[in-house]
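Handoff note, outgoing to incoming analyst
You'll be picking up this chain. Sequence as last confirmed:
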Amino acid sequence: MMKKGFILLLVLTVAIAVSACGAGSSSNSENKPAVNNNKDKNEPVSSADEDIVPEEGAKLLVWDGKDGVPFLKEIAKEFTAKYGIPVEVEDQGGPEQLEKMKTDGPAELAADIITQPHNDLGNAVKSGFVLPNDFYEEQTKAEFLPAAVEAVTFDGMLYGYPRNMETYALFINQDLVGDAPIHSWEDIIAFSKTFNDVKNNKYGFMSQLTSLYWTYPYFSGYGGYIFGNKETDPADIGLNNEGSVQGMKFFQSLREILPMASADATDDIKRSLFQDGKLAINLDGVWNIGEYSKLKYKVTMIPLPAMPGSDKEPVTLAGVKAYYVSAYSKYPNAAKLFARYATTKEALLKNFEISGFIPARLGMESEAAIQSNEMVKAALKQLENSQPMPTIIEMGQVWTPVEQALELIWNGEDVKQSLDKAVEDIKTGILTQDQ
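Most recent structure output, in case you need it:
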């Protein structure tokens, strides 16, 4: 009897061990860590030293827009060499990715990792397209800019693996500005009054005028905001509060130095004038650093100065591009491992060198490649004083009413009435959306 009992116990022990090993190779497995066996056995293993165990036979498909593909192809080669997991990279724009997820996901044709701007995260989560960044949650929160972490979090759950951050600041053609000081809005206005030559399409300052994305600093510079409670409370709209009204009055006054219809200050026109040496100070996106660095003029960049009469630093809206693991992936562990690998410090530095993307990681400003680029350093400083665009679905009801209000305000209509109407329309849109 003792011998039979021993044999039964041995069989059960082996069965349990086999079951535990098999769990790591299942697509529905728990995220069990693969411990680095080269470590000193007496040294405690921390979560930072662990990697998720990829599924056996895993292969991955990654989607990203054209500008992100060159880096992904390079990092995919490294990843495959290290982990033996094949990775295919396809060129798919952000909006197309979410559309394809609707059909390709259920058909098991969708990518394992998608690349999205953070402001589409709410829709992606509500649609059930993405998995939480759970295994690497603590590392992500510790290693990335707080604004980036906040941007890829929805309803308190971290989803994204942040790649880069984008915002805007002031590009300055030093050949045109010369020795004129550009340290304040008063300086910008004074310079523009002397530089402008409207008949010859020469302007001291230009900005896109009809989008909340570009005009948000005029709101935030005096205490305005979109939604309360860190952009999560749609019942609290601050786009017509006292600070917003004051900011829009200053915005309206800029018509004196930018005498054109708001519809004419498009990104294309503005960029063309800047490249042709007819625009001296250009409020534009930091993603243009590489392009503007190649101009025949000396171009510098500075963060936005405080608004006149305000002691608040104007906050810009920021976008965060991140990788997300598809909820349809057959190999979620391998996909999480790749998303983590593509956002390590070394990987994001390589991405910066290949694509010019400004890393969303902490401490990157000390890297030599970034230290040597004054415009990137200025962009990082502006990013420190930026906030992610709201991810809540109600944000979709904000853009059009504010755009309409901005056009009215630029054309000289009453600021308070225009903003009140915009907020009323936003509230109506939110109520209609919820029904």
